[in-house]
Design brief:
alpha+beta; 5'-nucleotidase,  domain 2; 2 domains; 5-stranded mixed beta sheet; two-stranded antiparallel sheet; 10 helices; about 30% helix; about 20% strand
């Protein structure tokens, strides 16, 4: 499945619409209504007594270029004393939190959903092949007791891409803002443990239970496609009784015809003209609920298959993981689980790996 955008304009009836501007304030949504009387009541047509309202919407890129354009100002005239004061306060707070502290330098971009999985530019391929195996292999239980392990984490625990360049404390919280620790179940039969990832990722009973409880393990935008497929449709919906302002063609900020840069290209109930900036489309790809790393053996070599493994996981998925084991007849409960390295979180694991592997200048 390929997704096209994370913005939507939904028409419910002739008087009711809704606007979703984006995910993480990367877009500012603007909506207006024409046809209201000064008293606030909708005027009535003499023939059918139905209100004649016209709705308009825009998705505005949240950056200074857009702000300058819509304010009719430039870099010198746009700032205000109050705005500069707020910016200074934000800078002071960032400094006090040491958000610019650098852990390492990413050698390339790693994407959440702009690349398929697996892929050498997928952040989940990086986590599966490098981050989790490298860090877990260092743990005392694995090294001293020569244990083998399967490590599972949900893709929804990653909320943003890693861009080439400095990986800072700020980056850490943008990419993985959660504090849930890593836990494990010692010595689980490998035959059962190896099937858990399949049960968490397929459309079987575990998935149905998740959906019944409105739970999801994937990033929010991937999950949204299951419940609102129209959001990612290639053609807009048709609403015969609804009036839209069709005189909203996209106009570049300059008189030149620049090469569009990648960004959201929105199709919604009002058509395809809502994006304030002309973008070249970005393709988004589906990713699984969870990814799994193998530690201490080669999972593709049958001769290396162990009898038992430690089944490690992000605590957030514990309920579903235990359900997957129970489905296979392995009766384990919360009391059978243990904290790994004092409850070390996936965020800390990622940061530790970056410090040890992405050294250098950037």
């Amino acid at each position: 499945m390929k997704l096209t955008n994370f913005q939507d304009f939904k028409v419910f009836d002739t008087k009711s619409v809704a606007l979703e501007s984006g995910r993480y304030m990367e877009t500012l949504g603007f909506m207006s209504i024409n046809g209201l009387s000064k008293s606030g009541a909708a005027p009535r047509a003499p023939s059918d007594q139905s209100p004649k309202l016209t709705f308009s919407r825009r998705y505005i890129d949240n950056n200074l270029y857009s702000m300058h354009h819509h304010a009719g100002k430039d870099a010198k005239s746009f700032p205000t004393k109050h705005g500069l004061k707020v910016s200074k306060a934000i800078g002071k707070a960032r400094k006090s939190l040491d958000l610019t502290h650098k852990y390492g330098c990413a050698p390339q971009d790693y994407w959440v959903s702009r690349r398929p999985y697996p892929h050498n530019e997928s952040i989940f391929s990086l986590i599966e092949a490098r981050v989790l195996p490298d860090e877990v292999a260092k743990s005392a239980r694995i090294k001293k007791e020569e244990k083998k392990a399967l490590v599972i984490t949900n893709t929804g625990g990653i909320r943003f891409d890693i861009f080439k360049g400095a990986f800072t404390k700020d980056t850490k919280f943008l990419v993985s803002p959660f504090t849930s620790g890593i836990r494990y179940i010692p010595d689980v039969p490998y035959k059962a443990a190896s099937q858990v990832i399949k049960l968490l990722n397929n459309e079987g009973p575990i998935m149905l239970e998740m959906m019944a409880q409105n739970a999801f393990l994937q990033p929010p935008e991937i999950h949204a496609a299951r419940h609102r497929p129209h959001l990612f449709a290639n053609t807009p919906s048709t609403h015969e009784t609804y009036q839209i302002n069709s005189n909203q063609n996209q106009i570049p900020f300059t008189s030149e015809d620049p090469e569009p840069f990648p960004g959201y290209t929105t199709t919604d109930d009002a058509g395809t003209n809502g994006d304030d900036t002309i973008h070249s489309p970005i393709q988004f790809f589906n990713v699984p609920n969870c990814v799994q790393s193998v530690v201490g053996f080669n999972a593709t070599d049958v001769a290396q298959e162990p009898e038992h493994v430690d089944l490690m996981y992000n605590e957030f998925i514990q309920k579903w993981l235990l359900m997957a084991l129970e489905y296979q007849g392995v009766g384990v409960g919360v009391g059978d689980t243990q904290s790994w390295e004092g409850g070390r979180s996936f965020t800390e694991v990622l940061t530790g790996w970056v410090e040890g592997n992405w050294e250098g200048k950037c």
